[in-house]
Write a structure and sequence with these properties.
47% helix, 9 helices, alpha+beta, 216 residues, 7 strands
Length: 216
């Protein structure tokens, strides 16, 4: 009887040990799986963040940007360190605008302003204006000032702001922007050909048409 009881006791202990071992293995496996799942999830999130699409918040965009010098004071990096009128003077695509700004006596006004946006007509935009008309405007300081200040908004506009907005200008009237992606229009007439160009005190949107104030 004692022998039988002893054998029975050993059998019970063996079964209990086996059950305990099984529970332990299951717990370890579950813990490892949970840790692996969390690690995998964290890795996936990190990878997704690393490869998310960049925004245009800090980059110039548009087909006209190819005309901007790749290096030197007229490049994007060079313009970023100068106030806007000085920066524009170093960009060969804006030479007609710069001459007009000088004739209007607006260099200091633009360079000293803070956090503005300049819709800057490129040389091709001025070339659309008949020469006789352009010469007349360039020799009428009051009219020239009115037109040029209509191209200046008193805040730095981002591409998101350009999507749909109406903004007061330095000339006191408003202009309207619309579009999306890399395609934006001002007053439904001028196309932004190189947008989001940074200078020390302004954002510059290079456009292909000279804007005319509504009452001019």
């Amino acid at each position: 009887m004692t022998s039988t009881t002893s054998r029975t006791g050993r059998a019970v202990l063996a079964v209990a040990a086996t059950a305990a071992l099984a529970v332990g293995v299951s717990a370890c496996s579950g813990s490892s799986s949970a840790k692996g799942g969390a690690s995998s999830s964290a890795t996936s999130s990190t990878t997704a963040a690393a490869h998310s699409s960049p925004t245009m918040a800090d980059a110039p965009f548009g087909p006209g940007c190819s005309a901007v010098p790749k290096s030197g004071s007229g490049s994007f990096n060079g313009m970023a360190t100068d106030p806007v009128a000085t920066a524009a003077s170093n960009n060969p695509a804006l030479s007609t605008l710069v001459a007009a700004v000088k004739k209007a006596g607006l260099v200091d006004t633009l360079n000293s302003a803070q956090n503005i946006t300049v819709f800057a007509p490129d040389n091709a935009a001025f070339a659309k204006i008949p020469k006789a008309t352009l010469d007349k405007v360039l020799n009428d300081k009051a009219m020239l000032t009115k037109i040029l200040t209509y191209h200046v908004v008193g805040k730095r506009l981002t591409p998101q702001d350009l999507a749909h907005g109406t903004y007061p200008t330095l000339e006191k009237q408003t202009l309207m922007t619309s579009g999306s992606g890399t395609s934006y229009t001002v007053n439904n007439t001028a196309q932004v050909v190189c947008g989001n160009v940074r200078t020390a005190n302004a954002n510059v949107e290079i456009i292909d048409t000279v804007l005319m104030p509504p009452s001019s």
